[in-house]
Amino acid sequence: MALFVPGIAAAHGKAKHVFGTITGLDTAEIQVLTKDGKTVSIGTVAETKYKNRGKEGGENVPKVGDRVAVDVTEKDGKFTATEVQFSSAANPQKPMKE
Amino acid sequence: MTKGVWVVFATAMLVVMGTVVMLWFLLQSNFSAREEPMELEVMIARQLRHLAMPKEQKQMANPVPASDEVLTEARVHFADHCAICHGNDGRGATQIGQNFYPRTPDLTQAETQSFSDGELFYMIQNGIRFTGMPAWGKDRPEADPESWKLVHFIRHLPRITSEELLEMERYNPVSRMALEEQEQIDRFLQGDEADPPSPAHHH
Hints:
The complex is a heterodimer.
Chain A: E1 8-10, E2 16-25, E3 29-33, E4 39-43, E5 49-52, E6 67-75, E7 78-87
Parallel strand pairs in A: 4-7, 5-7
Antiparallel strand pairs in A: 1-2, 2-3, 2-6, 3-4, 6-7
Chain B: H1 3-28, H2 39-52, H3 55-58, H4 68-81, H5 83-86, H6 110-113, H7 117-126, H8 145-156, H9 162-169, H10 176-189
Helix pairs in contact in B: 4-8, 7-8
């Protein structure tokens, strides 16, 4: 089902990507607004890796407004992030069109 | 019957019973690699591996002196050849590593670090039968310094830094498909309005 939702694409093996902009986050979850206007909640765990792809040596923690490509695994309809690649909103870049 | 005959008979019975139990166990598991190995199985396998390793090999000292240069070489080598199963950090938390039977061990833990240098070298050179560990050795031990360098790197794994791990990612094998996917992700993260990678299931 999720395979056919815009903003979510299959990656390697059982993993999928969620693409979009962060609208909210705390220590246990990230909310991502995908290109089609849906908000996807993704759980984060201690093993979740973070990569700032927008700036060398930049902050390694994403913020609200950052663009993200999140590798997720899905179990019982819930997403868990294995890797969060993000581009800091502080970097010069085009905002995502709604 | 004489005592000798009784001993032979009892030994034969034990062998037969052991074989039956082993066959029963294998058939029960359907030869699946999904299960965690039983503690008894792990213990027996480790003992057999220990017994099978030549004593002189266990006692071999690492002929390659440790240095920053050696560690750098071994780090690149490990990232290219070993990390797909063991992970760059050696903890075995990879998709392949966690689906082997038995699971790929955490090389930073005492279970591995307590081996002698000679034992680690022997396992790299000869592999470990009935596991996913292949034999990498081709030449005489003294003519294969690359594996000895890896032994130094395995000793270093418990203290590996985040900078080293980041550098290793550059040397991990990546398929052309994965490279193209990462390029698309990078374009998306940089504000490109192109659609994200299209859904396509692949392994």
